[in-house]
Amino acid sequence: MRRLNLWLSSSARETIHFYLMWLRERAIWGVQMGQNILSLLRQEHAKVVAQLDELQQQGLRDRKELFNRMKNNLLPHMAGEERVFYPELEGRGLRDLVSGSREEHTAIRTLMDRLNRTSMDDEENWLRAMLEVREAVESHVEREENVVFPEARKRMDAALLLQIGNRFEEAKGKAHLVPLR
Length: 181
Prior knowledge:
By secondary structure, this protein is mainly alpha-helical. It has 7 helices and no strands. 80% of the residues lie in helices and 0% in strands.
């Protein structure tokens, strides 16, 4: 640090010090720095797919709780994409890609509604319906991460991806959840 101080003017050192204090204060108060929308979505995709995998197991005693947790991750995620991420993509000439993603969301919601109406006591039918949801989600994730994300990266700079990530988190917090079982 001393070597760095020799090369910086006092005003530059003050600016750096102020910025470091600002970062430390944000960390103390639990305010997280924003995250790139593509990184956020990848993390959430992995989390939901892992939850879907867990729900596929037979004989789970806490299936209802796990199912509700998965829904509380998946449904706000889709709402956040539709309210924030997809409009940004459409505004950058990716209307056709977004149209496909919106259709996939509609199909996933339809499958989730069917699953929600299927009794968990009928494990065989419930697991069959869960498999359909899982396959639809995995297909959507694969398409989004391998086709949509690279196109988004080409059309959006790092600052915009970060800004969209922050807005996405806000939109998820405002998402209306389907009543849980």
